[in-house]
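Okay, any thoughts on this one?
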Amino acid sequence: MAPAIIGRRIDALEERLGVKLLVRTTRKLTLTFEGAAFLEDCQRILNDLQNAEASVSAGGVKASGHLRVTAPAGFGRRHVAPLVPLFIESHPDVSLTLDLSDRLVDLVNEGFDCAIRLGDLPDSSLVSIRLAENRRVVVASPDYLARHGTPATPDELSRHNCLAFGASTNVQRGWVFQQDGKPLTVKVGGNMECTDGAVLHAWCLQGHGLAWRSWWEIGQEIANGTLVTVLDAFEAPPIGIHAVFPQRKHLPLRVRLFIDHLKNTFGNPSYWRRGGLSRSGDDRRRAAADAPALLAPAAD
């Protein structure tokens, strides 16, 4: 189509709407605020049309278009990123961008289709689906426990070297337990702390102390015996692993199928028994069933 024709059509559209959509100079085109909002709405309508057509073709399971997903860096690296190739293999007409960030992403204003979030969710206009339940427990290497003994109660943590997550303000938030049906927060101390969970994980494996970790971080090590849980009788209630997405009347098919993909995987106890997907061969597509379950699948 000739640029002159496009220009006349844009002029006619702006006249009909009564607003300026583009600022045009001889060097560049720039969207106005109204133009950007109108473009976003039109793109959503076209996506809805595309999803409507896809839902009634190819048995209603064909998805297409681009999917933008965000997840916490550590969890996303270990448990979301490995599932992306499997999803794309099943839905080759979908492309996907995975953003790994520990900041709270604004899904609507930053153009994301869905986010994976851990813990309690703040009240918002977002819709959430619970994918699994994550427990937090105290762990140590067998070598550390052999040298220093096993704590029997949370109070005994004061006699152990605890590898704490150091906040930027250097204020320790404490480890959370449950005693007699009530929450109990214990301030812990030790000679090593870090703001990076992966570093704490490595120190714990090396036998330098006790650590309070999420099951999704330690599942593989629990399964192979390189880490051992302690104080299980005082374990706090689990927190949720959620998929959240903006409130929409019609959720795009690609988003719905991706969330289903995550829920089907995380809801399978064998996945957590393995500690995640295997990194080699056909085992990538199935989880082993040779160790106790680490995370419980969430209810709908």
Summary: Residues 279-300 have pLDDT under 50 and may be disordered. The two ends are 50 Å apart (CA to CA). The chain has three domains: 1-60, 63-133+239-297, 136-234.
